[in-house]
């Protein structure tokens, strides 16, 4: 993926989403301001199926918003499923 648009001042994202994988085996997908973890992260107080964070408002990922934004959880889950089916997260 070319980083040239970022270096020339474009504010358009170069990726639709970024897939993360922790050392503990937990996957996450980030798109825009949202990050969805597919399992408990290091700060989880209980076993949860997924955690949703608004990285613009909560960069430290302290407030799980999955219960308040089920449509975002569903959308990011579908995005991750599509990325896995396509075999990559880059064009």
Characterization of the model:
The protein has 2 helices and 4 strands, in the order H-E-E-E-E-H. The model has no long low-confidence stretch (mean pLDDT 84). The chain has 91 residues and is an alpha+beta fold. A 4-stranded antiparallel sheet has the order 1-2-3-4, covered by helices on one side.
Q: Could you list some keywords that capture this structure?
A:
four-stranded antiparallel beta sheet, single chain, 4 strands, 23% helix, alpha+beta, globular, 2 helices, 91 residues
Helix count? 2
CA gyration radius, whole angstroms: 14 Å
> N-to-C SSE series?
HEEEEH
Tell the overall outline.
Answer: globular
Total E-strand runs: 4
Mean pLDDT: 84
| Low-confidence parts | none
At a glance:
By secondary structure, the chain is α+β, with helices and mostly antiparallel strands. Helix content is 23%, strand content 19%.
Secondary structure elements and pairings:
Blueprint: H1 4-7, E1 18-21, E2 27-31, E3 34-37, E4 51-54, H2 70-86
Antiparallel strand pairs: 1-2, 2-3, 3-4
